[in-house]
Amino acid sequence: MRDLFKNPRALTEHISQALHEKSQGGNEFPQDVFFSPVTSSVLFLLGRQCNGSSEPCVVFNKRSLRVRQPGDLCFPGGRVAPRLDFFLSKALQSPLSPLGRWRFWPQWRDRRREQAHRLSLLLATMPRESVEEMRLNPFGVTFLGPMPSEDLLMFRRILYPMVAWINRQKHFLPNWEVEKIVYVPLRELLNPESYACYRLHFNVGGKRGGEGYTQDFPCFRHRNERENEVLWGATFRIVMSLLEMVFGFTAPSMDSLPVIYKTLDERYLNGSP
Question: Going by C-beta distance under 8 Å and a sequence separation of 6 or more, which residues neighbour residue 17?
């Protein structure tokens, strides 16, 4: 594994192969995926030389106080826009685009045409949302493959993650939706000691009783001299899914982990300061 971390090309090929093998034999994208109001696509970003470091890392957006789920770590993305994304998907299928350069694209295009069409439509949210949220250069990334969908139950959405590797871009310009960019080294995510139990008290409009309710969630804690961030929820599950598929890593049982406490109220749902 250490050798993979020292060789970006070997690492990206390993990740892409693992994602491709996971996608074989299934229908990842249902027939109505593009027109469903609950469909969203997110871009799982990996890179090297991020934030002055040469080691591989995962790149997250930290949501600002002006949006839902303020303070959460997430990936850039959003709901599909059928008309606009249809035209963007055509551009993404060109030989010079990230999708056109993906080594498994000819197999999808020739043998799984309907699934390939839906994949291109979902991936089309990438240039639209990532440019808007963080000024990512969409043609400066290498597409590595799609991941299984993830349900975001609290907001009734289904997320379709698309994994990409940032080739050269080192700096981003977040918009008003993003407080800052957070870089988490892959080695930290593979360290069992970085995980915890997130004990959340939900005080949201008297749900489940007038005093709210408390629930435990697995989480990852990213800490250094400048940051103390918690990754949990749907984005946590997406990251864990990739770590298991690619590296065979699973998070420790919550029973053995330290507990982090936090309260969420209506501001978490509507993003008002």
Answer: none
